[in-house]
Amino acid sequence: MDIYFVEAQDTNKRLDLFLNDEIEDISRSALHKLIENGNIKVNGKNVNKSYKLKEGEAVEVDIPKARSVEISAENIPLDILYEDRDIIVVNKPQNMVVHPAPGHYTGTLVNALMYHCGNELSGINGELRPGIVHRIDKDTSGVLVVAKSDAAHRGLSAQLAEHSMKRLYNAVVYNGFDKDEGTVSANIGRSSSDRKKMAVVNNGRNAVTHYRVLERLGRFTLVELRLETGRTHQIRVHMSHIGHPLLGDSVYGPKKQAFNTEGQVLHAKVLGFVHPITGEYMEFETELPDYFRRILDILRK
Questions:
Q1: Which pTM value belongs to this model?
Q2: Which end of the chain has a smaller Cβ tally under 10 Å, C or N?
Q3: Active site residue 137
């Protein structure tokens, strides 16, 4: 089951319109059927599709999973930064999908976690996403926190909803900047022309990204990006929106990319949060991976 918390800007939005922005690859008619069948509840209660949401409400979505798909534990090496009985923090490599989905039922982070943790993963997000609280794209590397207990999952999810987690990324983007730092504040929602893509849209959800120039590299720039919110593809959409698409991002940037990259040059470098059980603030920082450093070496020469 997935839980979505209603924020101030979504107050009075219809339930079906809210979920249409939140859930990828699902039609409006499919959402309506889930609501009618009681698979979607607000604060634990059945409501109709036109229900007007209130700030702070929890929208619970239980999408029935295909029982024919069996997710197996796989002995895939993990770069573990920290682990205790409630959470595990890992450094995800580029080109690894976080959780199983059509076309990717093996080789994912979840397959690796199931082998390492056994049954000690939160079940809140269902059979295909045990323990997964937040995710990063397949081609994005970097630090993630995973919940091993349901209590930890709820605590981490609340911090994400409150935007209180510290999330810093490094990226190489096209073009130079006139100023060394700035903020992109532009609503993000599903693209009207391609539902697989996100876009800056007037009726989208509030999204804020702060950027800071770290190094100027000719026609490219190394930047640090701090997420204030966490929308799908937020960094990629925002940077493209202001004329600085990520190097390697053929979805939101040039179709033909330089340096034979295998996806966007984007790394989740720092993650800070309050331990959901102990209350201790924890912060983890990862080194730039080999693929990222290789690109920087080329650009510096």
A1: 0.79
A2: C
A3: yes
